[in-house]
Amino acid sequence: MRRGCGLKEGWLERIWRGYVPGRSEDISIVPNLPNFAGGFYSVNHSGPFEYLQQVPLVLYGPGRIKASGRVHRPVTIADVYPTVGRSLNVRLPQRDGSILKEALAADAGGRPRLVVTVVWDGVGRNVLERWPGRWPTLRRLEREGTSYLNATVGSSPSITPSTHATLGTGAFPRKHKVAGIFLRKNNTIVEAF
Fold first, then answer.
1. Which sequence spans correspond to the domains of the chain?
2. Residue 11: CB atoms within 10 Å
3. Closest CA to 100 of 58, 62, 141
4. Within 13 Å of residue 169, how many CA atoms lie on the same side as its CB?
5. DSSP 43
6. What DSSP designation does 31 have?
7. Whole-angstrom distance between the N-terminal and C-terminal Cα of the chain?
8. Model pTM greater than 0.70?
9. pLDDT tens by residue, the chain, 193 residues
10. Helix (H) or strand (E) holding 69
11. CA distances from 109 to 8, 49, 63, 68 (A)
12. Residues 50/129, Cβ–Cβ less than 8 Å
């Protein structure tokens, strides 16, 4: 009880955002650092910790995205949804995310013909730091666009179905209800997608 109540507030917020009553697992495991859940051959890249949460978030689009370079304010992947909506001049329902204003050019005019979202699944900022010379194209896009260095998933579990649903809806799992790879639905276990 003491350890659970002693978790950092930001970690608890991420766990709360990712928990869906009736769909999530019965127990959320938060290992004591540097321990992790999973096996040595199938490492789990999910959890509330910074090294599992920090992700590259880079926006690029000549004439539409400003060359703001590296931005240090904290953001989450839920911010992508309203930002794309604003770029498309579409009024979207308010969700958990906020518009990434530093990235959008004020005089873009009209709608873009195409928006592409690239997800490098399982690659966090820690991977980029470990292999600094292995991503020259992303480094160029960071320079020529806007890169959020303090971007996080924003919820835990930080796994593919949950995070992709957050990207597409601007809401965290607590609202969009995709709580994991497998989840409960009508008293059975089903795959999220």
1. 2-191
2. 16
3. 58
4. 15
5. B
6. P
7. 34
8. yes
9. 788 888 999 999 999 999 999 888 888 888 887 777 766 565 667 889 888 899 999 999 999 999 999 999 999 999 999 999 999 999 999 999 999 999 999 887 788 889 999 998 888 899 999 999 999 999 999 999 999 999 999 999 988 999 999 999 999 999 999 998 888 888 889 998 8
10. strand 69-71
11. 43, 40, 9, 19
12. no
Q: Which sign, positive or negative, has the C-alpha torsion 10, 15, 17, 18?
A: positive
Q: Which amino acid is at 5?
A: C
* Helix axes 160-169 and 80-87, enclosed angle (nearest 10): 30
d(CA 14, CA 131): 27
Structure tokens at 122: 């399982």
3-state secondary structure of 191: strand
Query: H or E element: which one contains 2?
Result: helix 2-5
Contact 153, 120 (CB under 8 A): no
Encoded amino acid at 2, one letter: R
Question: What 3-state DSSP class applies to 102?
Answer: coil
